[in-house]
Amino acid sequence: MRIKHKDLDIPETEPFKFCQLDRSQYAAVLTEVVRTYSDGFVLSLNNQWGTGKTTFIKMWNVYLQTKEFKTIYFNAWENDFDNNPLVALMAELETLTKGDDSTFKALTQKAAVIGKNILPALIKAITAKYIDPGVFSDVLTSATEGATEILDEEIKAYSEKKKGLIEFRTELEKYVKENIEGKPLVLIIDELDRCRPNYAVQLLEQIKHFFNVPGIVFVLSIDKEQLGNAVKGVYGSEQLNSDEYLRRFIDIEFVLPDPEKGKFTKYLYNYYEFGKYFTAEERKKYRRDGNDSESLLEFAILLFDNVKINLRQQEKVFAHARIALNSFGHNQRLFPILFIFLIFVRDFQPKFYKRLVDRKDSPQTIINELKAILPANLLSERPRAFQFLEALLVLFYNNYYQEIEYSSKIMDRNEDGKNILLIEPIFDPSPDRGNFISILEHYNHFNGGEIKLSYFLNKVSLMSNFIVNMTDDTP
To answer: Residue 386 in 3-state DSSP?
Structure first.
């Protein structure tokens, strides 16, 4: 059984073979853009964390290679241990060298000039020139003279650096033309928004000032909002217009469209082999509901789509759910809608989950909190599934809550002997709450009237086995 999602295999001849989101079409479009504007530009792939940017970028990188483009994939996050991005980028460029490396050697010589720290702090320079360690020199009388000398040196160094920058670009353009065989070099910068803010900004600045030459296409895989926050942090101003700042570097912006509803969820369901649990011969002997498998998948799709969690977050829910599923015996009820919902709130609504565990709130308070978690449009879009969720949650929570509040009730009988609600549900807008009552009656009398929410919470928290062992070992 899998408990961790591994990186997808990317075959060299068919890079999108195992793509689960039908994204090869976007690679074809972007490749045509690169081919059309071969003189060079900066493209940003702007999507939030967890939407599959890196997987797409890696697949597109191989796809470009199948179309005979020279590419470099550079993970900024893995390289930010070094203070100067120029060194790392030059190391990546060297991999393109074919045969004679004289051009690259010339390029590195120019890079050495512009890479020097030629603007030392004034006090550091004065100390180095006029203060002998252990001897206090007459710095005050020499300060004016020393500052003038340093300024002259810095002006000279600046002129050398400016000249060196022009020469570096010239050599870089020459090097690129010699090694890319008529097509632009595609240099992909990934994880830029995850590395150290000062490194990210320095890398952007070097791309703009050092590497902006014909024949290089830069692809920045970023979460623009997070990168904007890094820029504000580096410049120490929340008032900085980070969008305008980034616009200085980015020529074209592309956003990967959301995948088809439920497609990735179905893939995760199969990847984590939920079917093996539901179709196990032992479970077939005991299960009362034949549609547990379908219920779990359908509700997960509905839930994920409405609460808008990203692909990586969906993966986290399913990985956790698959582990927790093993704590259910083959003869135990699962109630898949409630089960997957509890996994979700444990991971992404921890305050609400803690309230369920602590059972200090009344059932009505829990309902009110539920309303804050789930979108209001569910009342009109798909109320039935969420009526079941709400009814099961309230019923089992009240059974759990009664251990400390014996008199707590969610339903009673009127003078005519009919059941009436003592709570106000959110997913049954009918005047008599008939649907909600019928669900409660069904589960209360036939399927789960004595089940407490702790039955699920212990399993979701991966504690059920430990609790059983502790009980068995108690004298």
So the answer is: helix
- Paired sense of beta strands 252-254 and 411-413, if any: unpaired
Q: Looking at this protein, which amino acid is placed at residue 148?
A: T
d(CA 467, CA 288): 26
The yes-or-no verdict on residue 392 having pLDDT over 90 is yes
d(CA 184, CA 70): 7
Separation of alpha carbons 322 and 297, rounded Å: 12
**Cα–Cα distance list, 385 to 300, 301, 436 (Å):** 11, 12, 11
Dihedral of the CA atoms 296, 298, 304, 310 (nearest 10)?
90
String of DSSP letters for 13-28: S-TTTT-SS--HHHHH
Query: Three-state SS for 346?
Result: helix
1-96+180-257: CATH homologous superfamily? P-loop containing nucleotide triphosphate hydrolases (3.40.50.300)
Alpha carbon distance 179, 241 (integer Å) = 38
**Digit-coded pLDDT (tens) for 333-358:** 889 999 999 999 999 999 999 999 99
CATH 3.40.50.300, the chain: domain bounds: 1-96+180-257
